[in-house]
Amino acid sequence: MKYLFIFAAFALFLLGGQAPQAEPIIDCVPKGNARPICGFKNPEDIIGLPGDQAILLGEYGHSTEESGRLVVLELESEKQHTVFRGGQGKGAEPGWGDPSCTTPPGKSFNAHGIDLVRRNDGRLQLLVVQHGSREAVELFEVMGAGTDWRVEWRGCVLAPPNAYLNGVAGVSNGDFYTTKYLPTETPIDLTKEIPRSNTGYVYAWSQSDTSYRKIGGTDGIMPNGIATSPDGRFIYVNMAAEHSVRKFEVATGRELGRVAVDMPDNSHWGPDGRIIIASVKKGLTAEDFKACLSVKQGPCSIPFKVVALDPDSMIVETLYVSDGVPMGAGTSGFRVGDELFIGSVKGDRILRVNLRQQ
């Protein structure tokens, strides 16, 4: 599982079609209204911090042998601060995850989907899907204000058997939802075949009884990012290989809506009450995929876009489109005011996009 799944999303490019091979992007210069901020290591997902003066990024690293970090980026100065590396942390705190998870993740730490929620006790809880030292949802407390933030590991919940997780969405009472992207006991080599039948579904984890349950009706092909309504009643699930976003009622598993979105990846709520979704272009070739994996410096140059989804009408609006320069393979988008901050699962940078300069 170590290397096979790290760039699993990109394997969807094998669905066919033709695209020109782009020259490697070595410099870190703007293009139009998009300005890259460099110095990261596969910053796969991004979440905002209270006060809108800083954001927090989860790095995937390059493999389980070359780990990622949790990084705070100050928006005005663009200074980066590492706030967590694998192998750090003290013992678990009661009420944060499963009591049987008592030790922090080891040095092999790779952050995948992340989410931030204000708990009922007023504390900020960061949820991180990670695959390095263990397959789990790691729970951190985020403390600070303005541009001064720190992160402390508080607990975790190990993944269910046979589940490679992807996205996570927290609820204020300590519960969360997470997507089973692929099975682990019978790995799928996504460089050779693309699943045509269901590979996963959504789990609900309960803090009250510290257990998972499958949400019936949520089966799909490669479930990826997930967002939940503030009250936890509804979830919005990105079915990557189905090229759709689906809305479900949690209590019944009933599907309430569906909209077409090319290869939807991570999801986060925007300031206007819509869900921001990164959407990678489909229909690329094996050569594109291999070129992306082989990038040693700079970003992958796979085209993508970022869209906003109205949670009631399920109407989608395109916010930004990239041809792959100055960064491609966008996997997450977070909006602060009139700016988008976009991460990628492969490369050394994020994008800062001014939406007023279209």
Structure notes:
The protein is mainly β. It has a domain at 38-275 and 336-342: Neuraminidase, CATH 2.120.10. It has one helix at residues 286-293; strands spanning 34-38, 43-48, 54-59, 69-74, 80-85, 111-118, 124-130, 136-145, 148-158, 164-170, 176-182, 202-206, 211-214, 223-228, 234-239, 244-249, 255-260, 264-269, 275-280, 304-309, 316-322, 330-336, 339-344, 349-354. The strands form six sheets. The protein has a four-stranded antiparallel β-sheet with strand order 1-24-23-22, with no helix packed on it. Mean pLDDT is 90; it is low at 1-7 and 9-21.
Order of helices and strands: EEEEEEEEEEEEEEEEEEEHEEEEE
How much helix, percentage-wise, in residues?
under 10%
* Largest sheet: spatial strand order: 1-24-23-22
Mean pLDDT: 90
Main pleated-sheet profile: 4 strands, antiparallel
Q: Give the second-level CATH assignment, the architecture of the domain at 38-275 and 336-342.
A: 6 Propeller
The parts where pLDDT drops under 50 for at least 5 residues are 1-7, 9-21
- As for the CATH topology of the domain at 38-275 and 336-342, it is Neuraminidase
Would you summarize the structure shown here?
This protein has 358 residues and is mainly β.
Quickly list its features.
Neuraminidase, mainly beta, four-stranded antiparallel β-sheet, 358 residues, disordered N terminus
